[in-house]
């Protein structure tokens, strides 16, 4: 029987997904939740490094040891995060509908499933706050810096938001500083309070030349320095995972918001319709709590 537009679909394994679809109605209210966007990370680079054993701390958590190929909801940070905070995480490749983890109440949604956490609010952050979560943003790129109205839109969704130049794109130790801050956030929460922590990792975004050994600004950013930035993130992400799972089990989503180009077909950068921009790595998994 053909499904009517105003019906919801039952939770089921997604044939295009490498990760099992959890029942988010059981996760929300029980587990802490971590959303990491590896800003600008390309799918092909992420897969190459995982296959070569160059990002062991991330790879050990990826379902099947590999990234899932997905399509970004936007071609640059602001657009993509507005969509993700409305519940539209990167979409599995292949024809859907694909059951979503989170969704706002919306008549006719064909991707709202039995296991989808549905919220009445206009965005996921407010929806989780209404469910009792402390919502915290650790910003990275300029859309989270609050240096003006536009840079305040996304962080203002959260109960608590952090940004400083040490967390931004020009800092060669940005992710270490973000992890240190995340550990302090977790340590300052009452044990019974659930946490939704969002971290926008700025290290992959240009400039990233300084992550390559011996590189100078004159060398500029390349696909290789992009890869070196991901290796840098991997060296420190284990501390972040340990911090967010130190109180209880944590459901983690790690993905890119969009990719970027380094000369492919004459393009450099993003906010354009190229496969290197639209195709992103994605994973979700549980981090076990203390035993």
UniProtKB/TrEMBL annotation:
SUPFAM superfamilies: Alkaline phosphatase-like (SSF53649). Transmembrane segments: none annotated. Residues 32-274 form the Sulfatase N-terminal domain. Keywords: Hydrolase. GO terms for molecular function: hydrolase activity. This is STM4013/SEN3800 family hydrolase. The keyword Transport does not apply. The keyword Kinase does not apply. Residues 1-22 are annotated as: Disordered.
């Amino acid at each position: 029987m053909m499904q009517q537009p105003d019906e919801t679909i039952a939770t089921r394994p997604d044939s295009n997904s490498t990760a099992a679809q959890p029942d988010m109605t059981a996760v929300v209210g029980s587990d802490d939740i971590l959303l990491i966007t590896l800003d600008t990370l390309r799918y092909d680079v992420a897969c190459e490094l995982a296959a070569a054993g160059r990002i062991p701390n991330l790879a050990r958590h990826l379902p099947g040891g590999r990234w899932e190929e997905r399509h970004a909801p936007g071609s640059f940070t602001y657009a993509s995060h507005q969509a993700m905070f409305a519940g539209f995480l990167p979409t599995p490749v292949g024809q859907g509908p694909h059951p979503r983890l989170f969704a706002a109440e919306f008549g006719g949604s064909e991707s709202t499933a039995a296991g989808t956490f549905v919220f009445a609010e206009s965005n996921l952050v407010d929806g989780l706050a209404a469910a009792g979560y402390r919502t915290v943003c650790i910003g990275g790129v300029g859309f989270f810096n609050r240096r003006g109205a536009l840079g305040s839109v996304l962080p203002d969704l959260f109960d608590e938001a952090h940004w400083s130049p040490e967390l931004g794109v020009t800092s060669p130790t940005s992710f270490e500083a973000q992890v240190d801050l995340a550990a302090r956030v977790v340590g300052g929460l009452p044990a019974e309070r659930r946490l939704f922590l969002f971290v926008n990792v700025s290290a992959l975004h240009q400039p990233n030349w300084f992550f390559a050994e011996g590189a100078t600004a004159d060398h500029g950013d390349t696909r290789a320095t992009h890869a070196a930035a991901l290796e840098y993130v991997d060296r420190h992400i284990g501390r972040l995972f340990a911090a967010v799972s130190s109180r209880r089990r944590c459901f983690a989503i790690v993905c890119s918001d969009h990719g970027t180009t380094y000369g492919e077909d004459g393009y450099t950068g993003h906010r354009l319709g190229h496969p290197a921009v639209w195709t992103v790595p994605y994973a979700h998994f549980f981090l076990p709590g203390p035993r």
